[in-house]
Amino acid sequence: MGITLWAIVSKVRLEAFMWGAGTALGELPPYFMARAARLSGQKVEDDDFNELDEIKDKEDLNLWSRAKLLMHDLVQRAGFVGILLCASIPNPLFDLAGLTCGHFLVPFATFFGATLIGKAIIKMHIQMLFVIFIFTKHHLEALENLIASIPEIGPAIHAPFVEYMEKQKLKLHSGGKQGGAPTDSMISKCFEVFLFFMIGYFVLSIINSMAQQYHKDVIEKKKAQ
For the purposes of burial, counting CB atoms within 10 Å of the CB of 12, is it exposed (0-12), middle (13-18) or buried (19 or more)? Predict the structure, then answer.
């Protein structure tokens, strides 16, 4: 009898959980930085809420305004569940969640609890099972046979699925240096640069808000004298 899926999972669950917990801890510095900036610039940040109310009904918004509105709606309406959903899937934009949740004063227990459960439990198991399927031949063959047996669409998607899984296996064996198309690498690099500028813009806006608040405090002190 071959090694079962459960036996493999039980061997790596603790290490995988620690990895997921580490990624959750990695989201805390942006959260605390944005939260501190928000608390130190209370008056300025209230203006940001008024700005959000003004642009909610507008259609010609730039990408940053749309992303800011989306994250605002997420943390304001969905709360714990929304953060949990974003943390439970491979999400390159989740780096913005810590900044946004801190900016809008989402409670620490809500943010970190949802992030920890999503990354260290749900997302960890999804990625762990995916890797096990790729590296366990009989599990992968069983999945391929199941897909092939789907009526009507099974035979059509079976071949592309097998090809995709082989490419993913090559990437994992070679550390991502082989088996991937140059186009995929270029798109990935472009997206990383785009994400870097988005986070940089958010950090600069926080610094600018703190500077404005400090300037207002200085002027008020001078008027009081």
Answer: middle
**Amino acid sitting at position 198:** M
Residue-wise pLDDT tens digits, 150-204: 888 888 888 888 888 788 777 766 655 554 455 556 777 787 888 788 778 777 7
Written as six digits, the tokens of 167 are 């490419």
Residues 34, 150: contact at Cβ < 8 Å? no
Q: Does the predicted TM-score (pTM) go above 0.70?
A: no
C-alpha span between 92 and 190 (Å, rounded): 13
The two tokens of residue 18 are 């620690």
Burial class (CB in 10 A: 0-12, 13-18, 19+), 101: buried
CA distance 79 to 29: 20
